[in-house]
Amino acid sequence: MKVKKITELDRISINEFKAARKTPLIVILDNVRSLNNVGSVFRTSDAFLVEAVYLCGITACPPNAEIHKTALGAENSVDWAYYGETKDAVGELKDKGFVVCAIEQAERSIASNDLMLDKTKKYAVVLGNEVKGVRQDIVDLCDCCVEIPQYGTKHSLNVSVAAGIVIWEFFKQLG
Q1: N or C: which end of the chain has fewer CB within 10 A?
Q2: pTM over 0.70
């Protein structure tokens, strides 16, 4: 096996990305403080044709050198919007008919490996702060909670890792 060179990866241009059919998914970052995590979410969102990333509260926005360092330009391909309050982003999406899922450990949460998505619907996922997770008032606004099963001694994942797992699961089912 030979590792492919960057010129052999058949990358699409930003204009082709903008015109491509997107995964019907919006990623909402609720007060994510790490610029590296924000950049990583942009990069993963680009990889799986996510419709948009909504940056809320203290979450930093492009243009930003630290976001760019991990996004590698994906902040330019993936549409994004900023909301001062996460509840406004969630409310707007619910008004537009999105099913909004908090990615959180909660009572009656759905394990990500048991998730059954409806291809006729559009979805949004809310990922929370690195320490506090998705706030309870935001969970209360969501249609459901999705939990990533974990089997070791730790029961939390880095927000960008959780985003990658969830975005991949939604892409597999909706893409």
Answers
A1: N
A2: yes
